[in-house]
Design goal:
The protein is mainly alpha-helical. It contains five helices and three strands, in the order E-H-H-E-E-H-H-H. The protein has a three-stranded antiparallel sheet, covered by helices on one side. The protein starts with 5 loop residues before the first strand and ends in a 32-residue tail after the last helix.
Length: about 140
Amino acid sequence: MMAAGLTVGDFSRATHLSVKTLRHYHQVGLLEPAAVNPGTGYRYYTAGQIPAAQVIRRLRDLEMPVADVKAVLAAPDAAARNALIAAHLARLEAGLAQTRAAVESLRTLLAPPANCSRPTAARPPCSSPCRAGYGPSGGSPP
């Protein structure tokens, strides 16, 4: 056991990373404990590891894959680190554009065509086939 180390539980509380997550990060080589008790396997960390753990947590919260987080932490300089982060940002933006397109497509499917109105007690269904079940077919969009 380390004399000045933080137990895995203390380190977990300090970093807001679960013990299970810390174990995983150790297994994949992302955040190695400062020491491991050879008899019990219990992990110990140092206060100096807290900033790295906070960066890891922040990048993972931003949906960066573990392999990319490792690359960011291992980057030789700020330019390389920023390039990796910019690449992740570009992937997120592309995913957002795809999600926006899907949302718009779904809204289009739900909207009745211009020549069709929603049926009400005062206005019966129109005679043309409509999306969203508003026409006489009541079924799928054309």
